[in-house]
Every structure is written in C-alpha cells, then in structure tokens.
Amino acid sequence: MNLLSKLLVFALLFNLSSCGKKPGGASESSKKPEREERDVVIGDYLKLQQLKCHKDDECPEYLVKVIVENAGVRTQCSGVLIDDNQILTSASCLPRRFRIPQLKCANKIFAIFPETKNIRSEVFGCSRVKEVSNNIFSEQSLWKSDFLIFSLDREVKRSSSRTSILGLKNNEELDIWKIENKSDYLGIIKKDKCSIIHESYLNPFADHHFSPMHVARDCNLSSSQSGTPLMRNNIVAGVYSTEMNKSMYDYLRSGDLLSETLARYFHISNTVCSRYLNFNVLNRGEITPPECNPVISHGRLDRLRSNILKGQSIHQGNMTQIQDEIELPQRYFKWDVKFFTDTRTNRFEGNLTRPKCIFKSSDWAWEFRSRVTRRYFTYGRIEFSTPSFELKTKLNANLKPVSVVNATDEKLYIVEFNPASAHIQKVTDVTITSKLFGKEIVKMYDGVTTDCTN
After folding, report:
1. Are 127 and 104 in contact (CB under 8 A)?
2. 432 vs 352: CA distance, rounded Å
3. Can you identify the CATH homologous superfamily of domain 47-309?
4. Using CA atoms, how far apart are residues 408 and 366, in angstroms rounded to an integer?
5. CB-CB neighbours of 50 under 10 Å
6. CA-based nearest residue to 79, from 109, 102, 111, 53
7. Which of 194, 362, 382, 449 is the most exposed place for a label (fewest CB within 10 A)?
8. If residue 301 lies in a helix (H) or strand (E), which one and from where to where?
9. Which residues of the chain form CATH 2.40.10.10?
C-alpha cells in the first residue's frame, strides 16, 4: 500500500472514532447518565416529602408546599389550589429567573399536597407559569401586587379554594394556614391569625379595603412561608408576600418614633386586585376596582410618610384639652394658647399669644396704685408660670400616628402693660416675653380690651 493510501485509511479511521463527540470531548452518551442521576436525586427528595395536619386537626386539602429547584438549590414556600390545576402563591417565593409568564417549569417547581384523613399526600409537577406580578421597585410598599400562578402537570382530584372579591378591611382578623417546616422533608400545617392594618407608616397607600397591597401584624410568618393564604370563611382574601425589611425595623427602633414596642409586620397582596384571578377564576370579566391602581412613586411615599409625622390633626384632642386648662380666666387677662411647630423635630409646643381680653380689672387694679397719690401706674409688669406642654407624633404598635403629650419644666411668662389704661380706658397694649423651643421670643399686641365675647 503506497503512502497516499495509508494516509486516507488513517483519516477515515480517525473520523469514525470521533463521531458523536462534542467539543471538549463529552459525548451525548456520557452526559445522559449524569442527567438521569440528578433526576433520581430530585425524585428521591420529593418522595421523602411529608405534609401533615397538626396533631389531629383538620386542615385544608388545597394547601400546598411549593418546592423550587434552582440550579441545585432547593427552597420552599406555600401556595393554595384555586381550581383543578392552578396554584396561587407569592412571586417573592420564586427566583427572578422563574418569574416569566408562560415559562415552562417542569422539573423546576413542585407542589406537595397534604395528607388528610381521607386523602394521601401527593406530589405534582409544574407545567407552566401562567401569571406573575412584575415589581420593579425594591421597596415593597411600592408594589401593586406580588402574585404568581402556575399550572400543574395534571388535574388535581381535590377541592380548591375560591378567591375573595371583598378586599381586606381595616383591623380585620383573618385565618392563616401556615406550614412549619420541621425538617427538609416534614411540614406541619397549623392555623393562626393575622390582623390587617390600614393607613400605617409602613404602607400609607393601603387606605382602602380595595388597596392592592396591605400590611398585617401578628402573623408570625417566616420567609419560607411566603405564599401563605389569608382566609376569610375558607376563601382566600390575601397572600403573604414578605416581611417588613430589616432597614425599616432598624430605622423605627433607632429614631424617637415609637410610643409602643414594635410588633412584626408583613406585606399582603389583596386578591381582589388580581385581574387574572378575577377573569379566570370568577369568569366575570375584569372587575378590579379603581382603588387597586393608586398613583404610586418614591416621592409620594416619602410625602405621605412625612405627613403622618407632621400632621396636626392627630393632636387636636390634646391641644383642646391643654387650651381649656390654660385659657381659664385668671387674674389680669384671659389668655389665648396656640401651638407652634418645630419643623426640625416635628414637635408642637403651646405658647401664650394675644390675650383675649382684660379680665375683671376691678379685682386687681389696686395692685398698681400709688399709696401716696392714689393714681394708677402707667406701667405694670407681672410674671407667672404655666406647665410647658410639648406634643409629638409617634407611632403605636400598628405603626399609626398617635399624639404624645410631654409636660416639661414650667414655662415663665413676663407680661408688660399699662394698668391705668387697662382699668380706666378699658384698653391696653401688651408685651409678652417667653421661650419657644428654647429660644426667647418677645411679642407685642396692641389694643387689648375688656371685651371677652370674641
């Protein structure tokens, strides 16, 4: 065989030996066992899953533990069956790479149904992500919902839960069925309560039972329980999203903002505001109310929170009580008390302003009369003190504003006027010297009369 023939035979044998290989030397056949081995591991993990009711309690058969497989990292949260094969959970439950509508999710997301008195525990795979909230802000109070709905790989022969169109009412206490994970494999379903809070400092946009996101307290939930449903008469009214973030807890604790001890606070999605749920589950068309779509921005959130701390209306009751106490007719004048604001500290401090009138000068005019000439003096000076009242807005355990009264040291007033004119002509000019927010102020008022009717 000549040299050319030998080279051709060698090239043919080399090509045949390389057939089926990809760059890097790994063939399809060598990859297949690795995939099968990984699938077996996932399958074994799912087979070991147990979801049970607490002790002998009955729990909803439509509650699920959601397991997410993300690049070898497994996380868990909660969800609820809302029809034959759809699960409602929180978008925060899933990594961002899975929050894509119509995404195929086989072998990525799984639903574990509980063992009840009549039904054995079951495992279902995810077929497709149907709907997901798109939240572009990191601040949860700026979200308009936090839902994710995915379909299962087959129909579920269990009862499902309906979703509410009644909204979330202020101070309403709702049931929650939460899954407590005793291990990676065992979850126990327990019943608890959550209370809804409107118009809180955390989320001032939540001011109506149809607001899209709400705040709840006393839920005692963890991040692994995201997606837990809040139930009213076995109907899903809300879905737990996330807890208030650490930076807000730290801010509230570090500032002089609290009148009571902080509770724990949770962001809740309002089911009435999901267009997908209203259209697909209720089959009544899009019926989301206008309150589900408030005007939301960082700037507006900051203004609303600032207004909560600066607002004067919350202090009106305490202001009236202090005014009634100090404005009682006393010697010389009947006083007028007004409250002034320190914008740096959001404090309100009471201070005497223009006297309402000269009060019964015949009872005191003799104090300013010469014993020799029997004439009334044209200059008089009196000093007296009243309690110094400060009002400050603080937040109670519901993160709502309350008026707190702080009675500090006595406040000294120096009042100068014309006693002769006040008693004889029934009119006088008055100068009042006092301190307001620690700084001395002098105010002059002309033509104070004996007319106390105004």
Report:
1. yes
2. 8
3. Trypsin-like serine proteases (2.40.10.10)
4. 34
5. 15
6. 111
7. 362
8. helix 298-310
9. 47-309
